[in-house]
Write a structure and sequence with these properties.
alpha/beta; 7-stranded mixed sheet; 25% helix
Length: 528
């Protein structure tokens, strides 16, 4: 027997982004190599180096030649985590033996164990009778992917790590990982661990989980600015875009506490006599769901994203959860507690769902961010009182046309680009509505429309309509030619204009200022 010091992750790192899970030794996360910060693809579990048996009669998979209870406990936790995350998991090992001419330096075969081994001693070995035999050291091993039943103990799939010319390849692995899934064997793994003759052994729920230091410093952040300034883009690019670590909700006038936190709903189940019985169960909302994820996975940050915070009655939607928004700060509490709720609440339904203990005090953990967006133009929908706002870090998103490539996109059928148009309009919105408290809210955000929104039919129906119905409804002639009495006339004239479409509907001084902003030597200022 020889230990080659080659690990499964050594092979997979050639083709994927592979990183060790911070909680469970032997469990690895796999992502696309080109997008290491992207979504989690799947997990694999492995803890031992590849080995080969020099006699050629046997090839031992040491990963399952184990009687160490700590090892098999980790395997059980790995399968449990994959189920909780709803991600595939594979139990992978590297195997080869020089007795059939396999080169140790070649990483020739990857094996996925698909069924648990002997329930007596958790020990098994691969028989060379069933090992995929190829052309030895000379290169390609065929078949490239083969599934074998190994006596009564387990099933394995062998995948070649090389192509016909002996070069490393992931094509056989890619096919296997897309089609197969080891999660159905989770219950068998749990049976191996816990169905032992020792009647005093604790149940899985009583097993202590390995300690991992909880990340700290999460906070409540409210991003605000004019519509289209890029608030959601800020969250996506600077905080999180991975759905595995997020819950996203949109507040609106009909959104309620029960939608957000959870509610008791009826459920029909069959009893032992196969008769249908009506029962009532707590169905968690997005707040409770993300709270549970963050609590169970201390090594990662989680994010509850609330879009359009003030389009719903936020204090009513949060209810008693409002109390949890006070976070512990660094100058008052130990470093390990920074970001955790300063005060807890008691909610038996949430506590039972998150902690499996209805008496447990509920707190937001230090690794859970709450990020919200708010359009300043919507401040009159539902007012956020001072007590609510003071529990958030208020972060304005500046409306910077001078830093956006989108500002250079041309408006179809005109000589004006989006940046020049919006900058002039925004300055006029501030001047024309200066006596109104909401004048700043009338401005156009950088992404009020995207590139396809600059087409003639879309631009008139979205941008010109907004100017007519909202931004300049008190003085439409400040922007539009006096001859137009109705929005329909403006839209018709714009879409049917033979020449420059904006020149056909805007006042001469407005259109002239936009042309001036198009000059190369004219410094384009931001709308702020």
């Amino acid at each position: 027997m020889a230990n080659l010091g080659i690990k499964v992750e050594t092979v997979l790192k050639k083709f994927y982004d592979v990183r060790q899970d911070q909680n469970i030794r032997g469990l690895y996360e796999v992502r696309e190599k080109e997008n290491p910060d992207g979504a989690l693809l799947w997990y694999f579990f492995s803890s031992n180096n590849a080995t080969y048996h020099s006699s050629g009669n046997d090839c031992v998979i040491r990963d399952i030649n184990q009687t160490n209870s700590a090892y098999i406990d980790r395997l059980r936790m790995a399968f449990d985590k994959a189920k909780r995350k709803n991600k595939k998991i594979f139990w992978l090992v590297l195997v080869f033996g020089d007795g059939i001419g396999l080169a140790p330096e070649g990483y020739d075969w990857l094996a996925s164990v698909e069924l648990c081994v002997s329930l007596d001693d958790i020990t098994a070995s691969l028989s060379m009778r069933n090992y995929p035999v190829g052309r030895g050291r000379q290169g390609y091993f065929a078949p490239c992917c083969v599934r074998k039943e190994q006596d009564v103990y387990f099933n394995t799939t062998f995948m070649s790590c090389k192509d016909e010319e002996g070069n490393f390849t992931s094509k056989y692995m890619d096919t296997y990982f897309q089609i197969y899934d080891n999660r159905p064997y989770r219950d068998i793994v749990r049976e191996v661990v816990y169905e032992t003759p020792d009647a005093d052994r604790d149940t899985p729920e009583d097993e202590p989980k390995p300690y991992a230091a909880r990340l700290t410093g999460a906070e409540n952040i409210l991003f605000y600015g004019v519509p289209g300034a890029g608030k959601s883009h800020e969250i996506k690019t600077k905080y999180c875009s991975d759905p595995d670590f997020m819950e996203r909700v949109v507040f609106h006038p009909d959104y309620m506490y029960s939608d957000f936190v959870g509610q008791i709903l009826p459920k029909v189940e069959k009893d032992k006599e196969n008769e249908e019985k009506l029962k009532y169960e707590f169905t968690p909302g997005p707040f409770t769901e993300i709270l549970k994820k963050a609590e169970e996975d201390p090594a990662h940050y989680y994010y509850l994203v609330i879009e359009e915070l003030n389009r719903g009655n936020a204090p009513a939607i949060f209810g008693e959860v409002f109390q949890l928004l006070d976070r512990k700060e660094a100058d008052e509490f130990p470093a390990g507690e920074v970001g955790e709720s300063e005060y807890g609440i008691y909610n038996c339904d949430v506590a039972k769902e998150v902690y499996q203990d209805k008496e447990h005090e509920v707190r937001i953990p230090s690794n859970l961010y709450i990020l919200a967006t708010m359009n300043t133009a919507d401040q009159n929908v539902f007012t956020l009182d001072t007590a609510f706002q003071r529990r958030w870090t208020m972060r304005p998103i500046k409306n910077r046309f001078d830093q956006s490539e989108h500002a250079k996109d041309m408006i179809a059928g005109t000589k004006i680009n989006w940046g020049a148009f919006a900058t002039v309009i925004n300055e006029m919105a501030l001047e024309t509505n200066m006596d109104l408290a909401s004048s700043e809210d009338k401005r156009l955000g950088v992404y009020f429309v995207k590139k396809r929104g600059l087409a003639a039919d879309r631009f008139s129906e979205k941008v010109l309509k907004y100017l007519w119905d909202d931004a300049f409804k008190m003085d439409r002639t400040a922007v539009f030619l006096e001859k137009y009495r109705a929005l329909e006339d403006v839209v018709t004239a714009y879409e049917s204009a033979a020449g420059d479409k904006l020149e056909a509907v805007l006042r001469d001084n407005v259109y002239g200022e936009m042309l001036l902003r198009m000059q190369p030597d004219h410094a384009q200022d931001s709308a702020d």
